[in-house]
Amino acid sequence: MTQICYSKSAQYKDLGTIYAQCSGPGGLQLSDFMAQKMGLKGGARLLDIGCNRGIQTCFLAKEYDVDIVGIDPWDDRMHGDPMVEHTRRNAEKWGVSHRVLAQKIGVPDTYFAAESFDFVHSTTALEMVRGINGEEGYLDCLREILRVLKKGGVFGLGEPMHLDVPLPKDLEPYVSYGDFSWKECFRDIHSTVADVKRAGFQIVESGYAPDAWAWWMEFAEHDPFCKKDPGGDPKTLAVDNGRWTSFGYVIARKVD
Q1: Region 184-205 average pLDDT
Q2: What distance in Å separates the CA atoms of residue 132 and residue 87, rounded to the nearest whole number?
């Protein structure tokens, strides 16, 4: 297993700014983690699915010297403008406009030519597709990712997941409410790996991120929506106390 050194992300210390510009737990440390697990190489072409405001996209472009197409079909919940416009502005701030192209599209309808990318990366995005379109919709996304990857290309999937344990009864009300309830969106690592295999990938590595709970605690403290609604996700995490919620990753390869 790849040993992770967070030296690239450690230099970015303003967690308030970082969590205001990305979605879910982990921030730039998650991007660092995924890049190293994927073996991301300078000069490669990467598709970043669900790029949100693009700060993680810009981090990867700058620190790993890769060319990235970031896609996100959604508009910003705070201000209403497209996420890709935030990505464009962040690319200018980070000095990587020549490396980052943002487009307002999503999976599975990317319209890219087959075998267009060396790497595909998605964190804290596809579980929401599962919540909207179910397992078949989720599999459609994975099959599209396989299609746009070059032969031998690597897919890195990072998602909020739950541990392979029964859902605690006292936690169930907290993870069952809302349009994108955690109960509907989250799966354990074993079922996620099974889906990636069903889509046609060869699994390279999978597991729960060692720092998953620390990332969730950072999220609860620094995410702007958590700050506005402490009775929402922060309360859920407090009730959970590390019993069920985690964050998993799957590294997979296109072999034929």
Answers
A1: 98
A2: 24
